[in-house]
Amino acid sequence: MSTIHLTPHQVMAAKAGDPDAVNVVLRELEGLLLSLAWRVDRANAEDLSQVGREAVWTALTRFRGTTVGEFINYAHRTATGAMSDARKEAQRQGVSRAVAADFERALRLADGDPYLAQILATTPEVMGVRRMTPETAYAARMSYEGPVSLDLPVEGSGSLAEALPGNSPADDSEARTTATEARTSFALRRLGRQHRTVLELTHGIGESGTHSDAEISALLGISPERVRSVRARARRRFAELYRQWGGMAA
Fold first, then answer.
1. Which of 19-23, 99-103, 147-151 is the most confident on average?
2. How far is CA 183 from CA 42, 111, 190, in A?
3. Of 15, 20, 228, 239, which has the fewest CB atoms closer than 10 Å, so is most exposed?
4. Overall pTM surpassing 0.70 (yes/no)
5. In contact, 245 and 238? CB cutoff 8 Å
6. In terms of C-beta density within 10 A (0-12 exposed, 13-18 middle, 19 or more buried), how is residue 224 classed?
7. Which of 136, 137, 146 is nearest to 115 (CA)?
8. What pLDDT band is residue 141 in, cutting at 50, 70 and 90?
């Protein structure tokens, strides 16, 4: 992140609405905003940095400090809050804010396990009057996890689902589809962070979109050769975990 060069006069002028000062302030904050966006969600950092920029811009008149340091801290808090809210908004995918908040409560009690959280969310002893129906809890989990596409291509293996042993549904029933999604999500969420991220960025799982090796290399700060090595190991581990689910369900 580059050093921020601002004077108290520029900050106060921006707060007063001077357009040239506003442009200077926002330009100086670009590095900070992009850095914060990467921390919130690196796959959508560019969009989130713009969210942060707009949040700081609209909040300029509410700044009550007098020093540059106070303003930078204010911009940091304002941008981070706006980016986090935007990410949660994108993740909710059709469930209400209240349901999303209740599921996050269940998720904390489940120590981060979304499948256990789905069960806890339907339990009156845990949720009280906020307990969900099984259908709502399932929708909340799917919203939290994001969509997992099983139809995306895998090099030399057809789709991601077809590349894994024991995964060749005999029909297209909703039950089989749901079971396959659950099995795939189980395996993905138990991969190491880097392994999971490389697979998600390669195959466009969730909301990340598909990325080339060069793009993944830039996003993760590793070489393209390292990307290919990580992906190969991630696929092997994915297949092992996928088979484990089959054994658990048997």
1. 19-23
2. 26, 20, 11
3. 20
4. no
5. no
6. middle
7. 137
8. confident
- Structural tokens at position 98: 């209240």
Q: For residues 183 and 146, give the distance between their C-alpha atoms in angstroms, rounded to a whole number.
A: 14
Locate 37 and state its tokens: 């966006």
In this prediction, residues 203-218 reach a mean pLDDT of 79
Domain map (residue ranges) of the chain = 8-91, 93-145, 147-250
Quick one: residue 111, left, alpha or beta (phi over 0 = left, psi -120 to 50 = alpha)? Answer: left
Residue written as token pair 């999303």:
100
Tell me the fold of 8-91. Answer: Rna Polymerase Sigma Factor; Chain: A (1.10.1740)
